[in-house]
Amino acid sequence: MRTVGVEEELLLVDPETGEPRAMSAAVLARAAREDADQDVFEKELHEQMLEFATHPQSSMESLHAEIVRCRKEAAGHAGKIGCTVAALATSPLPVSPAIGVNQRYQWMEEQYGIATREQLVLGCHVHVSVESDEEGVGVVDRLRPWLSVLAALSANSPFWQGKETGYSSYRSRVWQRWPSAGPTELFGSAERYHRRVADMVATGAILDEAMVYFDVRLSERYPTVELRVADVCLHAETAGLIATLARALVDTAAREWKAGREPLDPGVSLLRLAAWQAARSGLTGELLHPETMRRMPADAVVRTLLDHVAESLEANGDLERAREGCARLLRDGNGAQVQRGLMQRTESLREVVTECVRHTQS
């Protein structure tokens, strides 16, 4: 059974006002003092962000428990220095992002200017183990049309700088400012994948392989494929659902690759439209069907995804968990819908943030 790990980026906020706080260095220092072996939490581009990474897990129950534990530990460390954490993919309230003191981050600011200064967005990255780079590239090629459905399920960023954006995932639109971000063409082999990455680095437009921000890529650090399209999810169980579906998609894609089944290839232009549609409507309207690239109601597209990976879900013992998780999101709403519901009820973005702090640890 493939192992799965999750990286989540959390927003540091004031527990009373909901305003972002540039305190990641202090939180990390506190965590290091309390646990000398602490390797869970990491700094990110902006000081208002705190990242954690789970250990690889083969059990989805164990992965969910670790996400919950990491979120609570992050809140505990943050609380001791006067802030807390919120699983929000953008800050609903106005913020002036503070770039971390780091040579890499300073290079990014010089290279990309305002795009770096404004890039306070928070995602959820899922790593799924693969047996080789060849299998990994076979998976990367076959996941492409399905990623927009994961993006719609995870959408959790309807507000930006104090305003309603009209998008369910505005994070994904801001993320597209990076020159290497987004969907890719088919690679066909590990050799062609690595050649393309090397050519991109050689242009000087990006610093290194770690800045190849494909929607799905081979990890440069681990023997995994890394899915990078999801917003950080408001609820831990949604993050667990995204990870569950990601593993099933990788299993299904690997099986197709081994069988010599050709990948679907709608082309990068249509994949970009599918990603835009998912960001715009989330689960509240229509999505582009991964196999036809035509509009269909979101619930029908989600059912298509479940049907596509049902065999893999069942083999992993995750079928009922995935079905129930998707049904819950379609019924109760994703993070974007919850945020908008809170805004409608309270008419206060501050209240939205402070309520989402509670949701983060629920």
Molecular structure report:
This protein has 362 residues and is α+β, with helices and mostly antiparallel strands. It has a single domain (4-360), classed as Creatine Kinase, Chain A, domain 2 (2-Layer Sandwich). The chain has 14 helices and 11 strands. The strands form 3 sheets. Strands 1, 2, 3, 4, 5, 8 and 9 form a 7-stranded antiparallel β-sheet that branches. Helix 2 (60-79) packs across helix 9 and helix 9 (236-258) packs across helix 12. The protein is globular and about 55 Å long. The two termini are 29 Å apart. Keywords: ATP-binding, Ligase, Nucleotide-binding. Its EC number is 6.3.2.2.
Structure class:
alpha+beta
Order of helices and strands: EHEEHEHHEHHEEHHEEHHEEHHHH
Q: Describe the sheet with the most strands.
A: 7 strands, antiparallel
Number of domains: 1
Low-confidence stretches: none
Beta fraction of the residues?
A: 5-15%
CATH top level?
Answer: Alpha Beta
The CATH topology: Creatine Kinase, Chain A, domain 2
Number of helices: 14
Task: Name the overall outline.
Answer: globular
Annotation, overall tally of beta strands: 11
CATH architecture: 2-Layer Sandwich
Distance between the termini: 29 Å
Over the alpha carbons, how many angstroms does the gyration radius reach?
A: 19 Å
Query: How helical, in percent, are the residues?
Result: 40-55%
> What average pLDDT do the residues reach?
97
